[in-house]
Amino acid sequence: MNESRESKNAEQLEELLLLTEEIQEELEQKDQLIVELKTQLSESLTLNEKLNKENRAGNIQALKNDLKLADRALQIEKEKLRSANVTIGECQDKIRCLTQQRDYARTHQKIVEIPVEKPVLYEKCEACDRTAHQNEKAKYETQKERLAGQYKAKTVIFQTTLFLLAWYSLTTTLFQAVQSDVFLSDCKSFFHDAASFIQTFIGWTIAAGHSAAQISTKIPNAFIAGIIYWLLLILVVGICVAGTGILVILIEIKVIELYKKNCWDFITLLMILTSAAVIIYFGESIKKTLSVNLLLLFVLSQGVYVGLRCYLKNQLNTKLY
């Protein structure tokens, strides 16, 4: 029994020794690891201190450079300020001197009026003779009045001659128009067509009024329906006729304004007489060539002429400006 116990104790002791050796080895390994970590930590701290020193030195140098630049800019601004103060002082001294001179001039100087003689034409001195000037002036006035009278007389003669020629041309043209059967028939046809158009337009207007007045048939009361019917008829016809009349009057006023502005001259008179004479004298030949109303042709020719005159005048004004 004692031997078995001793053997067990010996085995346990050996196991304990082995475990102790293993623990001792692990402790040695850990000690080595701790030493290595301490070495690495010291190296890291040393490197960090070096980097901090280098960065601090670089920052200090950059700050020094910035301070130098700022100091240099400050010195330049100080120089500018000093020169500006010097200039301001000089200007103030000049202003002070000029103010003193002005005040002295106001208090010590007197205003003296110097008479200035205005020059007179043809008069060099008081003793000169102006007889020649008066004679020449009288001759000039006499010649001016004589030329004005001659111009007025020639203008009256020209206007009278022009009026007589226009009257002669107009009367001969009208007599020829009265004797021309073709022109008279075209005039009758023109006015007949114009009257027919007006009559047709009035018929259309009355028909439109009747159509609009049919709304009154929906009213059951015959008396009120009749009143509304005639009111609507008169209203529609009146509006159509009045609107057309106002439109025609406005167009006529505009045409008259353009005519007076661009065509109110001697050339227009010649154009009217010439076109009328050509249409009347050569009416039969024109009717054989063109199947057109002669009076309508005359009106169209005048319209084309007015349009051309307005266009040419506008183009001329555009080029001038």
Quickly describe the structure:
The protein has 321 residues and is an all-alpha fold.
Description:
The radius of gyration is 61 Å and the shape is elongated. The model has no long low-confidence stretch (mean pLDDT 78). The protein has 321 residues and is an all-alpha fold. It folds into two domains: 8-106; 180-320, no CATH class. It is built from seven helices and no strands. It is 87% helix and 0% strand.
Question: Mind sketching the topology for me?
Answer:
Layout: H1 2-108, H2 131-179, H3 181-213, H4 222-262, H5 266-281, H6 283-289, H7 294-320
Number of helices: 7
Beta-strand content = under 5%
- Strand/helix succession: HHHHHHH
Distance between the termini: 147 Å
Radius of gyration from CA coordinates: 61 Å
- On the 0 to 100 scale, the average pLDDT is 78
Q: Sheet with the most strands?
A: none
Category by helix and strand content? mainly alpha
Counting structural domains, the number is: 2
Uncertain residue ranges = none
Shape: elongated
Number of strands: 0
Helix content: over 70%
